[in-house]
Amino acid sequence: MDSLLLRFKSAAVQTIALDFDSIVGSDFSFHSSGSIISAITDAVADFSAEEINKKGDIYDTFTSNINDQLLSVANDYIDSKPKPSFGATCVEA
Fold first, then answer.
1. Which of 1, 4, 18, 23 is nearest to 88 (CA)?
2. What is the spatial distance between Cα 27 and Cα 21, in angstroms, rounded to a whole number?
3. How much helix, strand and coil, in percent to the nearest 5, is found in the chain?
4. CA 49/CA 54 separation, integer angstroms
5. Distance CA 74, CA 80 (A)
6. In a domain, 90, yes or no
7. Is 93 part of any domain?
8. pLDDT per residue over 46-69, tens digit each?
9. Position 3 confidence tier, pLDDT thresholds 50, 70, 90
C-alpha cells in the first residue's frame, strides 16, 4: 500500500450518488457508532424506495444533503489518513 500511495500527488472524491435504493440495499456498519447514528440508520433501512418516492421533495432534499455530507466526510478522510503518505513519485519500492 505504501508504494501505491507514493505514486499519488492528490486524490479526491468528486461525486457520490446515494439514493434510497442503495441505502436500503446496504448493510451499514459503523465502528463505535453512537446510539443516534444507529437509530437513524435503523429507521432509514425500514423504508422501501417506493415509500420514499411517495414522500416528495423533502426526501429529495434529504438525499441531496446526505450526498453532500458523505462527499465532505470522504474527502476529509483522504486528507487525514492516506494523503500524508502521498509522494507523487514513480519510484519502484
1. 4
2. 12
3. 60, 0, 40
4. 9
5. 10
6. no
7. no
8. 666 677 667 777 777 777 888 888
9. confident
